[in-house]
Amino acid sequence: MFFSFDRKISSFISKKIYCNTVHSPLTSFRETKYRQQCKKQGSIIMNSKKFAVLISIVSISGFSQGMLLPLIAVIFENDGLSSSLNGLNAVGLYMGILLISPFMEYPLRKYGYKPVIVFGGLVVILSLALFPLWKSFWFWFLLRLFIGIGDHSLHFATQTWITTASPIEKRGRNISLYGVFFGIGFAVGPLLTPLVKVNESLPFILSSIMCFIAWIFILWIKNDFPEQTVETNSFLDTMKRFSSAMKYAWIAFLPPLAYGFLESSLNSSFPVYGLRIDLSVVQISLLLTAFSIGAIVFQLPLGMISDKFGRRRTLVTILIIGTTCFSFASILEAYLIGLIICLFLAGMAVGSTFSLGISYMTDLVPTNLLPTGNLLCGMAFSVGSLIGPYLGGVFIQYFQHISYFIVIAAILFVVCSIIFIFGKKESRNHYLTEAK
User: Which whole-number Å values give the CA distances from 295 to 177, 225, 288, 347, 425, in the listed order?
Assistant: First the structure.
């Protein structure tokens, strides 16, 4: 039923998505002829069914992430674990992302998108299923690390597939649509947190089953390959491409960095902070869901706005709004309705920061560096996510008289200032490089 809904939505919004790829030496004779024919036309068509499958599994992945962060934070807080250790456990997921990132590009180029997605989905499913077996700080840390590896494999392949499949004039919209369905899953995830009162194992089991159902559909779609114009035979070559992508688009990696900090701290540290300012678990779940729903509501419109007015201008605007909303949230902590409104509006503004960062990166780097750029976006996100929970836990523990929302507002303001000052200059440098 969920897949059917996705198929209808994607069919309505994106009938044809074009993929600029070239022949891979590993493709069959029939696929080679098809690619040669499509190359003359300048594109390969990704049908709506394939797009629906991709956003379906991403939405389920978002669901598992949205559930896991507040769920484990609440479990550990109820067990009396310190907020700093609670935050330390949360960074396991993002350490997994960082550990696997340098090794993802080679298998993607050699085996294609589908095998990487299948691998990532399977790792996530098995890890979620193992949580109920043993309640241990370090065992759960290890499982979260494996979930980070699986999630990043899944997201890296799907992001690259969609970014290379999108024409420039629709790129922001298509990536935003990807973000919408991830956001839908992420918004529903925290609502399972209260099930911990029924049984601590129940949320993990439900999430594992739902991921498995979505994972099955991946087996039905046809594989494809990214553009094969660069060598990928060594770790050193990967590092050289990282350096090249950084020169083109370093400014575009700041929004994913900020969003990683925002998402991880909001979903792992804020539940701890919320319990300490006398919010209930249900109220915390509602606040997190309000932020996620806000992100969903405005994700697609912001993508289309960025297509029309530019990524930099859109990013600066939404970061200013996000800074303002979190600043007001620090004043309205005692009023639940006020907090819900502030987080909803903040979600509408900065909930698209990651997808807009990817769109910005895609505008700045050459096509053959898109897989590398997507990897660096994921790594920037994971660095922010690593900093978020631990810094948040330390802040809650040692600065009890200062609102936690002030930290988030400060981070958003700093990133906004850097993009405002350097973003325009970087875009010009890119176009000059291409002209040469």
Answer: 11, 31, 11, 4, 29
